[in-house]
Amino acid sequence: MDGERTCLICSREICSPDSAAHILPCSHAQWHESCIHQWLTRQRTCPLCRTPSQVAVVCCQDAAVDLEARALLARLTAALRRQGVAPGRLFAALSPQKAPLALEAAETALAIFGGSASAAHVNRAARLMDLNGSGWIEEADFQEAMERF
């Protein structure tokens, strides 16, 4: 379809042009920001043409932020499980009309839960929950993210 693009890593639709802004030296750029960061920490090559990428070095410097963000989401998921709260119930509490959450709203909730988590970790955790890179966290994204962590 015209205008639709699919992430070459996760095969999900790229909804926002900003979410595919990470162009590698080989000029390829059809992926979500979170997907290419995860890819480069493991592979250090372009997912499409396999050209080695120096971007991986920069990406690895961000790996600590990514790991802490994932740990924050894992703690949130564990807390929900301990309390017997389904992710859908938490999403409904955060968005009573079940409208998608803006990343900023998710960051606020994560910051409250995370306590001493840095702003970078909270921001990255919110972006990890935005599975389709749209800038919004839909209920299905929220639930899937909670299952992943």
Automatic annotation (TrEMBL):
UniProt domain RING-type: residue ranges: 7-50
Lipoprotein as UniProt keyword: no
EF-hand domain sequence ranges: 117-149
Keywords of this entry: Metal-binding, Zinc, Zinc-finger
Gene3D superfamilies, per the entry: Zinc/RING finger domain, C3HC4 (zinc finger)
A Pfam family this chain is assigned to: zf-RING_2
Domain of life: Eukaryota
InterPro entries: EF_Hand_1_Ca_BS (IPR018247), EF_hand_dom (IPR002048), RNF141-like (IPR047126), Znf_RING (IPR001841), Znf_RING/FYVE/PHD (IPR013083)
SUPFAM superfamilies associated with the record: RING/U-box
Annotated protein name in UniProt: RING-type domain-containing protein
Annotated organism of origin: Durusdinium trenchii
